[in-house]
């Protein structure tokens, strides 16, 4: 996607710093990134917070050709698509 990049990724510290980090060392805590100039921050929520319908991303397009382009690239669950909503292969809508 044009105008998209990862700005920063923070990782869990070494488990020797705190027992809470046991088994988490080196895993991502947060990531800051942009998609088509729209900034986002992702937070690792642990095993209890999985992708679901409660989270959606918005993609602003300049015209129908651009909408069709991204729709084709992102769409993974045709039966879940309606009113401009697309569900991708990760379950995000």
Automatic annotation (TrEMBL):
Residues 1-93 form the PhnB-like domain. Transmembrane segments: none annotated. Pfam families: 3-dmu-9_3-mt (PF06983). CDD domains: PhnB_like (cd06588). This is VOC family protein. It comes from Aerococcus urinaeequi.
